């Protein structure tokens, strides 16, 4: 038995702000309970051990809060580091890795064998939730060869694919079983080649196929900068039409990210958000607090009020 001195519990009201923080989350919990959230964890956001651990906590928190998180992970910098160790060079065209068959072996090994395994391990430190798979498994993602377009001309970039079909059954079965799917962006081609898929593109396609409420992209910038690299003013919210208008002006890694966000909101996903993965717990802050952070893309018919509660 433990006995507190008279009045101590009543005076001990330092806990009130904590209670208010929890209460602030209530409308968002009501709104998102039972909804699927596809989270893209970018390779540039996973450089730090404490960030990876905080990410795993956030994702498991979402699961316990009654949402259905699905993780699609990147690993671009990790692939480049491994290629370098092997004496192979990395080259990109329009933000896409030029992927020879030799490079593809390394992409598959790093994404499915290292990055995915590590994330599954971190998530499963909190319970038996995470199940790793690649887009190849159960024909979840089918790809066709993708060409980069440079000066209006198609350029062969090797085994880079575009997703043409998603069979979401295996992912849905995992969600229904209370698991957290952790998916590497590799897909089988109808021609039985294995293709390297940009992880932003894969996450967006999966969000659409799952009818997700939200696509969240965690990266290494605060959001979409209005006039990058000249300024770093973050665009906090923009409509699909506004995004389509600025898409041709974007460069490097932002191109597949924002193309994915646009595709998602134009295909039924409620909102698409780009967040700073370098900020600990940015995922929870974005979903469960009133302060929106990063960039939110909303469908054209949504009003600005989506930033708060509609
Ligand atoms: N308008 C922009 N706003 C923000 N970042 C931009 C913009 N245009 C290009 N970038 C670049 O895109 C990068 C993010 O893409 P990328 O490196 O592929 O990240 P990730 O590994 O998270 O997918 C940023 O670090 C920045 O250098
Ligand atoms: C075709 C293509 O470029 N694929 C990417 C796949 C990994 C990825 O997208 O990782 P990030 O999200 O960390 O950039 C690559 O090989 O780097």
From TrEMBL:
Annotated substrate binding sites: 75-76, 97, 196
Alphabetically ordered keywords of this record: Amino-acid biosynthesis, Arginine biosynthesis, ATP-binding, Cytoplasm, Kinase, Nucleotide-binding, Transferase
GO cellular component: cytoplasm
Keyword Transmembrane: no
Ranges where the Aspartate/glutamate/uridylate kinase domain occurs: 35-275
EC number in record: 2.7.2.8
Compartment list: Cytoplasm
Residues carrying the site annotation Transition state stabilizer: 40, 257
EC main group: transferase
UniProt GO molecular function: acetylglutamate kinase activity; ATP binding
Residues passing through the membrane, by range: none
Family: Belongs to the acetylglutamate kinase family. ArgB subfamily.
HAMAP family: ArgB
Protein's name according to its UniProt entry: Acetylglutamate kinase
């Amino acid at each position: 038995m433990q006995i507190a001195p008279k009045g101590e519990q009543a005076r001990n009201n330092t806990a009130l702000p904590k209670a208010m923080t929890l209460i602030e989350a209530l409308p968002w919990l009501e709104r998102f309970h039972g909804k699927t959230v596809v989270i893209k964890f970018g390779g540039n956001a996973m450089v730090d051990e404490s960030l990876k651990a905080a990410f795993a906590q956030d994702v498991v928190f979402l699961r316990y809060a009654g949402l259905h998180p699905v993780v699609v992970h990147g690993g671009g910098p990790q692939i480049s580091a491994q290629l370098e160790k092997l004496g192979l060079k990395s080259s990109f065209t329009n933000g896409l890795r030029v992927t020879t068959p030799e490079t593809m072996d390394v992409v598959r090994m790093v994404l499915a064998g290292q990055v995915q395994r590590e994330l599954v391990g971190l998530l499963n430190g909190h319970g038996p939730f995470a199940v790793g798979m690649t887009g190849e498994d159960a024909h979840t993602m089918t790809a066709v060869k993708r060409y980069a377009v440079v000066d209006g001309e198609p350029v062969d970039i090797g085994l880079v694919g575009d997703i043409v079909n998603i069979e979401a059954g295996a992912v849905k079965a995992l969600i229904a079983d209370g698991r957290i799917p952790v998916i590497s962006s590799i897909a089988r081609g109808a021609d039985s080649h294995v293709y390297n898929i940009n992880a932003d593109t894969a996450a967006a396609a999966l969000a659409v196929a799952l009818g997700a409420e939200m696509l969240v992209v965690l990266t290494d910038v605060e959001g979409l900068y209005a006039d990058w690299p000249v300024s770093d003013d973050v665009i906090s919210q923009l409509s699909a039409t506004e995004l389509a208008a600025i898409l041709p002006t974007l460069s490097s890694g932002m191109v597949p990210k924002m193309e994915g966000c646009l595709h998602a909101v134009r295909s039924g996903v409620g909102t698409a958000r780009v967040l700073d993965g370098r900020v600990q717990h940015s995922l929870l802050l974005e979903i469960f607090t009133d302060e929106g952070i990063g960039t939110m893309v909303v469908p054209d018919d949504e009003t600005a009020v989506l930033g708060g509660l509609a």
